[in-house]
From TrEMBL, chain A:
The lineage of its organism: Bacteria, Pseudomonadati, Myxococcota, Polyangia, Nannocystales. This is Uncharacterized protein. It comes from the Bacteria. It comes from Plesiocystis pacifica SIR-1.
Automatic annotation (TrEMBL), chain B:
This is Uncharacterized protein. Residues 77-109 are annotated as: Disordered. The lineage of its organism: Bacteria, Pseudomonadati, Myxococcota, Polyangia, Nannocystales. It comes from the Bacteria.
Length: 70, 227
């Protein structure tokens, strides 16, 4: 599965705006932050891998941080 | 002493060299020659059974010492007394007939490893799930806990879980009834050992919490607040 497919699976578009959205959400997690570059740079690719591997928890945590049902 | 046989009364004593030679294959009589086919089969079966028992004993010894356990980043719980802080290993206990506070949390994934290896391939997803449910852990790739280094937030989760499960039995804690997947509600059961180690039972409990959060929108804190 490509990083772009993983990004889509996580609920983002692969356009620069979608990548930036992911980067901002990832930085809410309390993990090592990534720069909001809107690009699939090395740090962002690693972050996508981590988030995809943890996708159930990632989505739950994103909901919580966004003030969803948590 | 020379290499001769010494006779002392009725007992004949052989020296070492002679005794060794006496027991070589060439000189040892084939005992089976004089046995019936049934006796030979019996001896064969006996030998096979003895080998099997020895092998099983070796397997159990290895199992106890962890020789056959694959190296995993996820710490696996011991089979221990399901009481707060208990540490005495024992055989798995049979769940009691009724009530949620018996046995261990269910492995709802049915993963043969005993916990969901797809959901929890490494420590980072565990950390993220803990954080999503209000437990302050950092999200990184470090092991969340180890047998020598329990994590206080894992301990807190284990205590909370046990309190909620016992509270459900006492009707002190109530689950929402209007949920999308009511079948997930029955998974709130089992008691965790409070040891601060995110082993398979703790991961199974965390999966129950997470699945009810994502599918049924049940906030874990809404249950812990009732205890």
């Amino acid at each position: 599965m490509t990083p772009q497919q993983k990004l889509r699976e996580l609920g983002y578009t692969t356009a620069p705006a979608g990548v930036a959205d992911f980067q901002r959400d990832f930085n809410l997690l309390g993990s090592k932050p990534v720069l909001v570059t809107s690009e699939l740079d090395v740090d962002t690719l690693n972050a996508i891998t981590l988030a995809f591997e943890s996708r159930v928890a990632f989505k739950a945590l994103r909901e919580r941080k966004r003030g969803g049902h948590a | 002493m020379d290499n001769t046989t010494t006779t002392t009364g009725p007992v004949e004593v052989l020296d070492a060299n002679e005794a060794a030679e006496t027991l070589t294959d060439a000189n040892y009589p084939d005992e089976s020659e004089g046995l019936s086919p049934g006796a030979k089969v019996g001896i064969g079966l006996g030998a096979t059974a003895a080998l099997g028992l020895a092998g099983f004993g070796l397997y159990k010894l290895g199992q106890r010492n962890g020789w056959w356990t694959p190296v995993s980043p996820i710490v696996i719980d011991d089979e221990t007394t399901p009481s707060d802080g208990g540490s005495t290993p024992k055989a798995p206990s049979k769940p009691k007939a009724s009530g949620r506070a018996s046995g261990k949390p269910p492995n709802i994934s049915l993963d043969p490893a005993g916990y969901n290896t797809i959901l929890w391939p490494r420590s980072a997803p565990v950390r993220m799930a803990m954080l999503s449910q209000g437990y302050k852990v950092e999200v990184n790739e470090d092991a969340l806990s180890s047998k020598d280094n329990p994590h206080p937030q894992v301990t807190r989760f284990q205590r909370d879980w046990n309190d909620v499960i016992r509270g459900l039995d006492k009707k002190q804690v109530r689950l929402p009834s209007d949920v999308k997947k009511s079948s997930l509600l029955r998974h709130y059961r089992g008691i965790l050992q409070v040891d601060g180690i995110a082993g398979k039972n703790t991961l199974n409990a965390l999966e129950v919490v997470l699945s009810n959060y994502t599918d049924n929108a049940i906030r874990w804190s809404s249950l812990t607040e009732q205890t």
